[in-house]
Amino acid sequence: MKLSLLTYLLGKDMTLEELFCVVTGSRIDGLELRAEAGHRHGVELELNEARRAEIKQRFEDRAIPFACLATGCKFDDPTPAGRQAQIDRARAYCDLAADCGAPRIRVFGNAFPPGSDRDVVVANVGKALREIAEHGETRGVDVCLEMHGDFYYWKHALDAVQIADHPRVGIVHNCDPREMKFGPISAFYEPVKDYVRHVHMHDLETDYPYKALFGMLKRDGYGGFMSLECDGSSDPVRVIGLYAALWREMVQSA
Question: What is the DSSP pairing of strand 196-201 with strand 169-173?
Fold first, then answer.
């Protein structure tokens, strides 16, 4: 397993160079950039071809993997036109990820709108994932559905990726505290484990059973990234370093 830093929230005010320095100084293995949120790293759709090539080269020069490009794309819009706009945007993010050297993008299924049929929403999300993945395959980019919003529940996420039925579609396990009300964390991890391509972690000092999850990931030979996505701080560099050290200790002892 490898540790990455997600710029949401601790790294949102850092330039790309500052993020590289923090990652190196904290012994973090990779970097995940949140797009569409006004973060200072500036990796957004508007970048031209030359700028994208420059960013890819900067990651390579620093020997820091671009673990994931986290988008805000979501596919719960009840209208075909609304969903298609999000699909087209996610396809464009696949291009940005490929141009900048990221092997995957993160997207949301998101929510069940009031009065909607859940099965229809899940099916719509699955179809969207497949369309994006077909484009991602041409660029060598995976599309990963985060277990977020109403799709935190494992069955909704699993059904969507199985409907997509494409090797470029995976899951981001989000370590959502709501999972705990259903019993052992294995109840959420085991059904989706074959699709997990990325993990998002939050406050490592909460009651969420991180060590149990780390143990299952180690057991299953998970070699992907786990991103720190912690609350903001007035001293983000120090907090990032502390969380990175805590993660290493927890993984070693899991």
Answer: parallel
